[in-house]
Amino acid sequence: MEKLVTRILSMIALVGASASPVCAQEPEEPHASTARAALVGLAAGAASLHAYDVYTTLTGLNGGAVEANPAMRAVARRPAALVAVKAGVAASSILASAHLWKRHHRKAAVILLGVTNGAMAAVAVHNASVLRSMRATGR
Question: What is the mean pLDDT of residues 94-109?
Answer without folding.
Answer: 95
